[in-house]
Amino acid sequence: MTDTVLEIRNLKVAFPSAGGVIRAVEGIDLVTEKGECVALVGESGCGKSVTALSVMKLLRTPPSVSRMDKLQLDGRDLTHLTERDMERIRGKDMAMIFQDAMTALNPVMTVGKQIDEVYRRHTKLTRKEARKSTVRALELVGVPEARSRADSYPHELSGGMRQRVLIALAFACMPKLIIADEPTTSLDVTIQAQVLDVLKSMQQDHDVSALLITHDLSVVANMADTVYVMYSGKIVERAAVLELFTDPRHPYTQGLLASVPRLSDDKQTFVQIPDAVPHPMHKPEGCYFHPRCSYADSSCKKHMPRLETLGNGRQVRCWHPLSQERGI
């Protein structure tokens, strides 16, 4: 048995259409160690959620076309498993917390019954024992009056409570890997902090690995150990969270960090990366970030840089990796 829980090698996902091929993910590698929280960050449209769905093997073909050299969970190769095999793994060995709890939960079933099903499917618990485990799972994530709340329908709960139910669902069988796809997107700031505290304590207390999909850098700073920065379907930087925040090397990473408002900013300036992520059907030649990068030169416009290792496991995809002193 290895300490590596999740290993992805050369993942590619495309969506053929009448207008051309949408290249959502282009050959990314990603590794998550036991008990580690790995964050995958980037703007909307960079391929983060498609990556998460690919790990869970929830993308259907058609419309998607997915290829990977390796998809391994806790030493087990999942690359060629059938849908029936994956159904035995989802919920038990890996689970996912989706963006919108209202659409992720079944609206015509009580939340307790939905958690009961996880225990009934993946364990040998009786119906009565499953309900006891469900109540205990809801209590663990801080749902008050868990026994009565288990009989509630999703629409009867607040957004924060629904998100806690999703966390309870994901952690029910204490899987080896939790994938959290923008778990606090629709919540206000106060509830977001509470939900993140619950998620972080559950992940750390039970030594579960986590893959956190987000564009919120404050969430990354609070949760992550290692960060992968994704841009237009490619990984452009990988670093430990402290290194990334103190010394970002890719111009895109520096732009993301610079665009976060700071209370200590006396000049009250707002930094913005110009333009937007390129359309996945019409990506520029060379480095995909070069139309938005102030450091781009002729080599950036003609050739895609390789993801180079700088040391300490840090990786950057850039012809001109930046130092701490240089800004975007």
Query: What is the mean pLDDT?
Result: 91
Task: Please estimate the helix content.
Answer: 25-40%
Order of helices and strands: EEEHEEEHEHHHHHEHEHEEHHHEE
Shape field: globular
Quick one: biggest sheet? 8 strands, mixed
Separate helix tally: 12
Structural class: alpha/beta
- Major beta sheet, strand line-up: 7-8-9-3-10-11-13-12
First-to-last CA distance: 43 Å
Number of strands: 13
Q: What value does the Rg take, in angstroms?
A: 21 Å
Low-confidence stretches: 324-328
Strand fraction: 15-25%
Describe the overall structure.
With 328 residues, the protein is an alpha/beta fold. It has helices at 48-55, 83-89, 101-104, 111-122, 127-140, 146-149, 159-171, 189-205, 217-223, 241-246, 251-258, 298-302; strands at residues 4-17, 20-33, 37-41, 65-67, 70-73, 76-77, 94-97, 177-181, 209-214, 226-231, 234-240, 308-311, 314-316. The strands form two sheets. The chain has an eight-stranded mixed sheet, with helices on both faces. Strands 1, 2, 4, 5 and 6 form a five-stranded antiparallel sheet that branches. α4 crosses α5. The radius of gyration is 21 Å and the shape is globular. The N and C termini lie far apart (43 Å). Residues 324-328 have low confidence and may be disordered.
